[in-house]
Specification:
With 496 residues, this protein is of the alpha/beta class. The protein contains 15 helices and 15 strands. The strands form 2 sheets. It has a 9-stranded mixed β-sheet, sandwiched between helices. The longest helix is centred in the N-terminal third of the chain and has 26 residues.
Length: 496
């Protein structure tokens, strides 16, 4: 069932379209018969529908002022409804009863303060969205078909639907309205958004990732970027069905995880690294103790013995350090928690060095992600991150650490057609002199693709290069005897 706001928006769009069409047809009818153009083509309706898609849904100035004034009055404390959610009938009834009581009091004090039934219903839905939901973007947040929501100030809100990014019809009333929603997001996480902390990472109750930048850095007004994750946890079968990975490569990756290879998932922003990390983590045996470390908790592991850790900001109004826990602190602390596996959501700083040392000191089978464009860049990126640790180590020493720690790099990419796929699976073989030796095991190719690296076009397939990795004996120790055809070899003697 469409939301109240959506129904109102549809009515507004229809009225605007009808008025525009009537004016155009009236102008046509007034022309002389000799000068009249051909009949209006049928596709004018499609053009009008496309044009009206950009209309914005706004409350009237009167209702917008009431919403701004009343959303604070229906709460007994600013944080009273922080754990309440839209759709909870009991909580919605509490807010509506308070709103009615406030209007009765306002009517007694000012008899001219009245609203029609339709105006009150519209205001009621807006107040519920602000107090129990996420303001103007609440319909987009609740609609699972939207994967990303981008608020570029009060008047511009974009949303990604099935891989296509378009501007939505929703807007906030003003900057204060955006800040109200931003504070409702960060307050339950005990995080601050103010002049001292104008940029905050957070998450929604369903685990969606949120990044907020406020003024003065956000010149067009407070920006809110939300990346939602599938309601249903994706499995390797889902990725095979989507064409993100072949079944042969999936068998190889399962063996790599169970055999405790240290794996780095590499890729750009929005390429699907976290989703792939979730899928890879599902291969970890349920008997093992897993510690996950993230800036904002996003991983959804199905295993029973999981310890989830998340970074913590400094204590508000403190010295800026007290109470703070960064990923690097959590990685070091996790080593005292007897983990069988350490899963770091993303290495983006000096914690990369701590992660490599953990992999080199008995914590095999660890997983993490890194922002980079290809496996070779991933190595260079890890070198840079290790230098950020402030240890002043020679680059050669850092490379030796990387080669000793990392067994496999999986490159995830978003292709030109919008699809997200595994495009390279690369083994870290060792060093020759001062250079790291990498060997592709699988590479994504499209028909007619030439040259090094993977194809950026859609419609291809992840193909074996014919090279067999050095750690196959390790697979066999864990009970995996992969067919040689997985690696593009016809040597049946290799089949075990």
């Amino acid at each position: 069932m469409a939301s109240f706001l959506q129904r109102k928006l549809n009515e507004q769009v229809q009225r605007e379209a009808e008025r525009e069409l009537q004016s155009r047809y009236a102008a046509v009818s007034e022309l002389d018969e000799d000068t009249a153009p051909n009949p209006v083509p049928e596709d004018v309706f499609a053009e009008e529908e496309k044009r009206t898609d950009t209309l914005k849904y706004r409350l009237s100035p009167k209702l917008a002022a009431l919403r701004k004034n009343l959303r604070r009055k229906v709460l007994r404390a600013p944080d009273e409804a922080d754990q309440w959610q839209r759709g909870d009938a009991e909580k919605e009834r509490i807010i509506i009863d308070r709103l009615r009581a406030i209007f009765r009091q306002m009517g007694e004090e000012n008899p001219q303060m009245t609203l029609s039934n339709s105006e009150f219903d519209e205001l009621k839905e807006a107040i519920l969205d602000d107090v129990l939901g996420f303001g103007a973007i609440d319909p987009l947040v609740r609609d699972r078909s939207f994967s990303e929501i981008m608020v570029n100030g009060p008047d511009v809100i974009y949303a990604e639907h099935r891989g296509k990014l378009t501007e939505s019809q929703y807007v906030f009333d003003d900057e204060d309205h955006v800040l109200w929603t931003a504070h409702r997001i960060v307050r339950p996480l005990q995080r601050q958004l103010d002049r001292a902390n104008p940029m905050v990472d957070a998450r929604l109750p369903d685990g969606s990732r949120v990044h907020i930048v406020s003024q003065p850095s956000a010149l067009n007004g407070t920006t809110i970027t939300i990346r939602k994750f599938p309601e249903k946890r994706l499995t390797i079968e889902d990725l095979i069905k989507f064409g993100s990975v072949t079944r042969e490569t999936a068998e190889f990756l399962e063996a790599a995880v169970v055999a405790r290879l240290n794996i780095v998932v590499s890729g750009g922003t929005g390429s699907g690294k976290t989703t792939l990390l979730n899928v890879l983590s599902s291969f970890i045996p349920d008997s093992e103790r897993i510690v996950t470390i993230e800036d904002s908790a996003e991983l959804q592991l199905a295993q029973h013995h999981v310890v989830r850790l998340e970074t913590a900001p400094p204590i508000p109004n403190g010295d800026g350090k007290t109470g703070s826990l960064a990923i690097r602190d959590l990685v070091r602390g996790s080593l005292r928690m007897r983990p069988d596996r350490i899963v770091v959501g993303e290495c983006r700083g000096g914690e990369a060095l701590d992660m490599l040392q953990a992999m080199n000191t008995g914590h095999d089978g660890s997983l993490t992600t890194v922002h980079s464009n290809n496996p070779r860049d991933c190595i260079a990126r890890l070198e840079t991150l290790c230098l950020m640790a402030g240890m002043d180590l020679p680059v050669f020493v850092i490379r030796r650490q990387i080669v000793s720690a990392i067994d496999l790099i999986i490159q995830q990419a978003r292709l030109r057609d919008g699809s997200r796929k595994i495009v390279q699976v690369t083994e870290v073989q060792g060093m020759e002199g001062e250079q790291v030796v990498l060997q592709d095991v699988f590479v994504y190719k499209t028909p007619g693709h030439q040259g090094q690296g993977y194809s950026h076009e859609g419609g291809g397939k992840l193909e074996a290069t014919g090279m067999r990795p050095k750690f196959l004996d390790r697979f066999e120790q864990y009970g995996f005897r992969l067919n040689s055809r997985i690696f593009g070899s016809s040597n049946n003697n290799f089949t075990r």
